[in-house]
Amino acid sequence: MISNKNNNFRIIGLYLFIVIISSFIIIQIFKVQQFDRLINTSSQPKFFKVEAPRGNILSNDGSLLAISMPLYNLFLDLSVIDEFIFQRDIQELSKLLSNLFDNRNHKEYEDFLRTARKSENNRYVRLKLKVDHNELIALKKFPIFKLGKNRGGLIVERRPNRETPFGILASRTIGENRDVNPVGIERAYDHILAGEEGKTLKRKISKGLWIPQDSKWNKIPKAGSDVMTTINVDMQDVAERSLELALINENADWGCVVLMEVKTGEIKVIANLKKDSLNRVSEYFNYAMAEHVAPGSTFKLASIVAGIEDGKFDVTDSVDLYKGKFQYYDRVMIDSPHNYSKVTVEKAFVISSNVGISQLIHKSYKDNPSAFTDRIYKMGLSTKLDLELPYPSAIKMPVPNHRGWSGVTLPWMSNGYEMAITPLHLLTFYNAIANNGKMMKPIFTTKIINDGQIISEQHPQVINSAICSRTTITKVIPLLTGVVERGTAKNIKSIKYQIAGKTGTTVLNYAGRKKDEKKKYQASFVGFFPAYNPKYSCIVVVNNPRKENVYGGKVAAPIFKELADKVYSLDIDIHEPLIADNVIQSTPNVKTGDFDSQEFILNHLEIENLKMASEKEILIEDRIQYDLERLIMPSLIGMNLKDALYLFEKHGLEVEISGSGGVVFQSIKKGDPITKQTVIKLEFS
Fold first, then answer.
1. How confident is the model over 59-87, as pLDDT tens digits?
2. Whole-structure pTM value
3. Helices (H) and strands (E) in the chain, counts
4. C-beta separation of 422 from 291 below 8 A
5. What CA–CA distance (Å, rounded) separates 494 from 492?
6. CATH code, domain with 142
7. CATH at residue 615
8. Which of these, 50, 413, 587, 657, could form a disulfide with 198 (CB 3.0-4.6 Å)?
């Protein structure tokens, strides 16, 4: 009985085991049949993805900034090569391989190929990795290999490879396509550049090697589209060379330069360089977009605009500088050495007086500081920029009656402290001033191109249609030109075109600095040119210069000037046009003599008949005086030195002259507004 019972249990157990195993097999068969699921075995062929050729990144003129230049891994299937052909051509092939790759001599190549052919794993022998396209073309013409894959045994596997023909030029903005922390345009436009990946069937052989198989299911990858940027290679090169030299000469830590087109917001230059202790300079971090620092004196323009816009003061009002030193509660505000007391607001700005600007803002807004910060907010300086390239936003802007606000916050804030914004953010504000108040979104790309066809375009985008009134802008531009003409940046004054801008010299460790700790500075200059018909705005920042020069006018402004000179030489559109009337006006008037003979000669030379020259001179002079009375710049081309000086002195205007004879150049264009404080530069032939 007991024996029979045990046998029954064994039979039932065996039966259940067989049922379970059978059920599992049936389920797997069903899955394979219904869902095309591959049986998971180590030798089963499977598909591998094939990356698509990545799209190119182009400069604004179509030059290649980043390009996919494929490399190839080469393998050999020596089993398919006919024995007679192998023995006949092996020596010649070895010599050609040695000449092409120069990593083995011809004897070593011959020994390598013979040994590999005799081995068990002769169907996937590694020949060479990272072979370029030209080498591959040459290789396919070699004996044996020219017979093709099925008879010559050459297996070619493409591998992705990204190159930047201009090296580090704008490399942080162009970016890198990497698995961890991709950056720049490569990251922002990855979905455009990547294309559509393909697939290829491979079979596993011994030692874990997978070799490609021909299959109707193989899919050829589709190349990505090209992205055209706003970057100008020539301008970028000048900016980077000038910035690199400044970092080395001034022993500075890092620097950045950004050049923007005023009307469109297109970024033509964005250079970000860091110097190490061995004076090696490289693109390390996108300081222009991601470094949030106190802007210092370059922020003073925002303070002046706010005060004028709110009706608190005007540029002709006076302010006491207290000879460059004033105490607010427990802290002392100090200027660069001077001995001024009461000066105009314009003068305080031109000499970059910390005391003067802080006095204006403190007295105007101390009872209602929110009015000042609200105005800053309306001008866009405390709002994150919505850029196409990813960047960290860490804007710091003080808020009245919140944590950290004190009695000294407002005066220090007026001079660009107690806050943190990026260089690009500040440039966007200055660009709006140059653009008659219209704030443009900085853009880095303009077109997406596929197979030579434009598939999409990016157009200029307005962030704020008016950050302030046109009247205010008309008042502050002469202040900015004054900085260059006779202020803290007069060392970069140009006789060819006029620059409007502001210097900045920020003490980086002004708060909490230890008694014996040396000050660390940041030198900057931001502005636009030509001043009264601007096409470009630009900012330059140099961090922690350690030599004698630490001021923005001495360290950063010369970089601005070098780039501006290059841009001026490249862009004919910003040159003053040559007008035919100028030539006629420069011709000496004939006031006495035989008018009949004079008229014959002048008509023959196609020069205006000047018989009525005296009457015409009166009309011209009346028109010039009328313009000067309205503070509108007239055309003085051709006028002699004596008459020009008389007119300007009569109307209380300042003028700087060079040369003698007739006027051939004037620093302010005809029709542009001027003020009593404007210094007009005239060149005489």
1. 999 999 988 887 889 999 898 899 999 99
2. 0.72
3. 23, 27
4. yes
5. 6
6. 3.90.1310.10
7. 3.30.10.20
8. 50
